[in-house]
Amino acid sequence: MHLGNSRLRDIVVIVLAIAAAWQRPAGVYAGQPWSDARTTGPFFCQADFSLEPYGELFKELETLQHELVRVLGISPANEQIRVYLFKDKASYRSFLRRQLPHVPYRRALYVKHDGPGMVFAFRHSELAVDLRHECTHALLHASLPMVPLWLDEGLAEYFEAPADERAFLNPHLASLRWNLRLGMMLSLEALEHKASLREMNAQQYRFAWAWVHFMLHGPVAAHRQLVDFLADIETHSPPGLLSARLRGRIPKLESEIVRHFKTWRRPTAGTAFRAERYKRFQMHRL
């Protein structure tokens, strides 16, 4: 199943704004028959099945925080994030009906009310993708007072892929190149106007991912603006619009992102410049 295109977003961040949507404080699910628990980095996970086979996935989640700190320049999570995992879809749906009856059903959820953030998911073939996506949301919101919707989703789309697939093998890449060949472009300003997940479709998720990829792997100036933007958010300084910051440094912004993806290929011995650009990101981007 496609991570972000063939399904119209089964995985979604939900930040609860209405107290009526909440029935219990964070972590108080004592009546649930949890079978196993693990702590890794800022995550405390409980499951109603054995977590023994998921050691590598938990290592990935711990590494995910290090990557966000390294690449985005944000502080580590300042709260513990609770992760609740269920053995199957039926158990998961039953739990959500009891505990979060006002939240629309999604295949995986990140929820934050007054306390620490929580991630809910169930065991299936795409569990690792779901956890990387939702835990990216959770880590961002555990470090920052807010994240613009498009950027929140674009970063989660980027980091939901396994680490060795993020730069070159994300499923969004092929569809995006077709969009660009057909002259389809979604500006950063158009994404910045999206105020609700209901306003975002598969193409908009794809372009949110594309702009994140451009800032992480494209011009150094673009990455610098992203880091500075997030730093202002973290220190509660008015950040303005990221689009305005980028256009101030890269006037022909749309032309540059088209060129970025037109030339973006996995580096080989014959593509020294591209290899160096990728190495710079991998080793030390800040």
Termini separation: 34 Å
* Mean of residue pLDDT values: 86
Tell me the CATH architecture of the largest domain.
3-Layer(aba) Sandwich
| Count of runs of 4 or more consecutive helical residues | 11
What's the CATH H-level homologous superfamily of the largest domain?
Answer: Collagenase ColT, N-terminal domain
**Integer-rounded radius of gyration:** 19 Å
The computed structural class is alpha/beta
Shape: globular
Biggest sheet statistics: 6 strands, mixed
Taken as a percent bin, the fraction of beta residues is: 5-15%
- The helix-strand sequence is EEEHEHEEHHHHHHHHH
Query: What is the third-level CATH name, the topology of the largest domain?
Result: Glutaredoxin
Unreliable stretches covering 5 or more consecutive residues: 1-28
Instruction: Please state how the strands of the largest beta sheet are arranged side by side.
Output: 1-5-6-4-3-2
Beta-strand segment tally: 6
CATH level 1 class label of the largest domain: Alpha Beta
Q: What is the share of helical residues?
A: 40-55%
As for the number of domains, it is: 2
